[in-house]
Please model this.
Amino acid sequence: MTSARAWFNASAVSGSLFGLLLILDRLGVMNPLDIAVDEWLDTRSERFDRIADTISLTGNTAVVLIASFGLAILLWRRGPRLAWLGLSVVGLTGVVEIVAKQPLWPPPSPDQYLRAALDALAGAEVGSSFPSGHVARVVCLALIAAALSSRIGWRAGMAALIVLVVAARTYAGGHTITDTLGGAALGLSAGSAGVAWLRWREAREGISLPFGHVRRRS
Model:
C-alpha cells in the first residue's frame, strides 16, 4: 500500500497547490508575474505560433476523448473493472475546471453551472481563464499513461508532453502562466488520484502494473 499512499499524498499536495493558485489568482496577487511573463513572451513569431497551436491540439476535447477511450481499452485488457478510470478522472477534472472558472462569491446558481458545462462541451471558454482546461486534461492523461509503463523513454515522453503543453498554452497567449500552472496542478492532482487507485487495486487484487500482467495470489 506504500505506493498507493505516496500517490494519494501527491494528489493531495497538487490539489492544495491548485486551491492556493485559485485563491491567489482571484485576489490578483499573481497579476505582476502574469504580466511579466506575457511581456517576456511578447516577441512571438508566426512559426512558433503554429508550433504552439499544434501542440495545444493535444488538449482539444475530441483528442482527449479519443485518448481516454484508448486508455480505457488498455486498462480493460488489464482488468475490465479498470476501464472506467480514464474517462472518469478526465470527467472529474472537467467538472472541477468548470466550477473553478466561476466566481467564488457569490456562488453561481445551478443554472449557471449547467450553462457553463454546456458551453464547455461546445468548446467555448467559460468564465475565468483559470485554470487551463487543455493543460489539466493533458497532464491528467499523460500521468496515468506514464504510470502504465516501466519504459524510461515512454515516461520521459509523457513528461516532455506535459512541459510542452504548459509552455505552448502560455506562449500562445490564451492563458497566463498562472492559468497553465493551475491547470497542471489540477491535472497532477486528478491523475495522481487515478494512479493511486490503480496501485491500491494492484496491491489488493494482484493486478501487476505497469503492463498489467495478472498476478494471482496463491
Notes: Confidence is low (pLDDT under 50) at residues 211-218. DSSP finds nine helices and no strands in the chain. The CA atoms of residues 61 and 123 lie 7 Å apart. Residues 2-205 form one domain.
